[in-house]
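Tutorial handout. Part one gives the primary structure; part two gives the three-dimensional structure as tokens.
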Amino acid sequence: MTDLPPPAAARPVFGEAGVHAVVRAGRTVHAVSLVQWVGGQEAPELLCRTGVAGWSPAALAPTRAEVTCARCLRKIGGGSAPLSRQLRLFDQE
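Part two.
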């Protein structure tokens, strides 16, 4: 266990180039940026700003897999995820 506060402990992991995040046991890979947090600390935040209830360092799992979140991809200028990789909300008739 570390003595660092949660955001400071997560910063070295998500501050590296090419490191993205998966929320808990999710399958969607999100882009991550470091933002100002309480007390001037920097903390990782999903670029799409999807909420993570009960923020905890354990909520975000680092990955180097490609970003698949359509909202994150639009923000980084990558268009959108291929339909085969992005889950559909509704069937199109």
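Part three, for discussion. Helices lie at 6-14, 70-75. Residues 70 and 80 are 5 Å apart (CA to CA).
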